[in-house]
Design brief:
The chain is α/β, with parallel strands linked by helices and 252 residues long. It is 35% helix and 22% strand. Helix 4 (113-122) crosses helix 6 (149-163). It starts with 8 loop residues before the first strand and ends with a helix.
Length: 252
């Protein structure tokens, strides 16, 4: 990869089938995502959202000439270069038995403390850290045992923000974070003009704040548009939205 990555992503009829499966997890997926966009990718369980996240970081094998970054076939990009430019934050991030500071700077071990603190702030983690007696020197136990689910997810997000990749893919990475904190994080991320952000989520309240929503079903994109438009269309998105509203009423 030469020069600065713009962050333009395109899928052309992307097909992915796991070796032990009888059907394609991604079955002719097409999209164009433009630099600086905040995109939500939603859909029912098993629609292929996580497979898409794994494809973007090439965590799984993908076919030639079906996924492109700035018009370059992702398969031709050196893996280390690709992962500098596309940070994938999974739902269950791996944390190490070391300090919070070291966990945050995992992708950029030479980062200065000021940068580490900034990324913790952007991930809405700074107040939690300041409440720990040892603050940034707090030891995160095996697999992040000393932290709550939401704190673990925000640590992983802070780590991705510190690497400063032009593209960030959040694979349900705010699932354990309450809605108020999630919307603060999204607002903070939207403020970063030069980032392309893909939020793969089952929380449609998150999708409502994004520039555009891509709705997946059975490995394809079946609807596309802004939340306001999609809730008026008869389709999967409207059904998912009504279900979310019904469950939030039950909770309240």
């Amino acid at each position: 990869l030469k020069g600065k990555i713009q962050g333009y992503l395109e899928a052309k009829n992307l097909k992915i089938k796991y070796p032990d499966s009888n059907f394609n997890s991604l079955d002719g997926l097409n999209f164009k995502i433009y630099p600086g966009e905040l995109i939500a990718i939603v859909g029912p369980v098993g629609c292929g959202k996580t497979t898409l996240a794994k494809s973007l970081g090439r965590i799984i094998e993908i076919p030639d000439a079906q996924l492109f970054l700035d018009d370059i076939d992702v398969k031709t990009i050196k893996l280390s270069d690709l992962r500098k430019n596309i940070s994938v934050v999974p739902q269950e991030a791996f944390l190490f038995t070391s300090t919070i500071s070291e966990n945050l700077s995992f992708g950029n071990p030479k980062a200065q403390m000021k940068k580490i603190q900034e990324s913790a702030s952007k991930a809405s983690l700074i107040d939690d850290i300041n409440n720990f007696p040892k603050r940034f020197r707090t030891i995160v136990g095996e697999r992040g045992i000393t932290l709550s689910g939401g704190q673990r997810q925000r640590t992983a997000l802070g780590r991705a923000l510190l690497v400063n990749s032009p593209i960030i893919v959040l694979d349900d990475a705010l699932a354990s974070v309450d809605n108020k904190t999630a919307s603060m994080i999204i607002k903070e991320m939207k403020g970063q003009k030069n980032k392309t952000i893909l939020m793969i989520s089952h929380q449609l309240s998150v999708a409502a704040t994004c520039d555009r929503v891509l709705v997946m079903d059975k490995g394809k994109i079946v609807q596309e548009g802004h939340h306001r438009e999609l809730v008026k269309e008869d389709g999967i998105y409207k059904k998912l939205w009504e279900r979310e509203l019904a469950t939030s009423k039950v909770k309240n």
